[in-house]
Design brief:
By secondary structure, the chain is α/β, with parallel strands linked by helices. Helices cover about 30% and strands about 30% of the residues. The chain has a single domain, classed as Rossmann fold (3-Layer(aba) Sandwich), CATH 3.40.50. It binds glutamine.
């Protein structure tokens, strides 16, 4: 921990934060403070420097223009990449998975360099992937099903240094077969919802990576109800 609190950087919420993705930072903070682990959210807005001292970085989704502005800003202010190099925990959602890779090709066919945090490339597919997603853990990384919803045109190809987060049962994810990416302590997904309120097991995995300790169980009936309801609406009972 860099201070006496676990610092959660909410990165460029003014550019990258579709579908309430800021809620991922709120869930991390709440799931830590409810267990007596001091934590705080640090907002990093467009135009501001990006500190390299935070423990967890959270990046949300955004459309092509917003993500291009964001990637330029993050390349000019490489605090998050420096933090990644010392093992900080990073969550990237949708535009996040695209800008974390080596490059992404937008729907207008222009290719932009990414941040090089994960071994992947992304390109716009022929159609948008929209709707509920259900996926199962790849490599036993987490328990239960991954649920969320997607709205993106990008398709992502992983290189050998990145592994998928999950296998798609319903929906598209990266390519209709696998969903998300994990490389070291960087975890990416196409899923909104936001993803962490809908998948507290992923929130706790990130907390474990950041604190070095498996967090105590925290069962919230409202979360179980939400997950059951959404999985049912996607046609897959939990
Ligand atoms: N602009 C990207 C796409 O459409 C990401 C969209 C998003 O983050 N929801 O593929």
């Amino acid at each position: 921990m860099s201070t006496n609190k676990v610092q959660i950087a909410l990165v460029l919420p003014d550019l990258l934060g579709t579908y309430g993705d800021f809620g991922n930072a709120v869930v991390l903070e709440k799931r830590m403070t409810w267990r007596g682990i001091p934590a705080e959210i640090v907002n990093i807005r467009f135009g501001e420097p990006v500190p390299n001292s935070c423990d967890i970085y959270v990046v949300g989704g955004g459309e092509d223009t917003a993500q291009t502005l964001a990637v330029r800003h993050l390349r000019d202010h490489p605090g998050m990449q420096h933090a990644a190099a010392r093992g900080a925990v990073i969550l990237g959602v949708c535009a996040g998975i695209q800008i974390f890779g080596e490059s992404f090709t937008r729907a207008d066919q222009v290719t932009h360099p990414g941040l090089g945090l994960i071994d992947s490339t992304s390109h716009a597919g022929g159609s948008r992937a929209i709707g509920e997603v259900i996926a199962t853990a790849a490599g036993g990384l987490f328990e239960g099903l991954l649920t969320g919803f997607e709205n993106h045109q990008g398709r992502t190809v992983l290189g050998p240094s990145a592994r998928p987060l999950a296998h798609v049962k319903v929906g598209t994810g990266n390519d209709g077969s696998v969903e998300g990416a994990v490389q070291g302590r960087i975890l990416c997904t196409y899923l909104h919802g936001p993803v962490l309120p809908r998948n507290p097991q992923i929130a706790d995995l990130l907390i474990e990576w950041a604190t070095g300790t498996k967090p105590a169980p925290l069962d919230l009936p409202a979360v179980t109800r939400l997950r059951t309801e959404r999985a049912k609406s996607a046609g897959v009972p939990l």
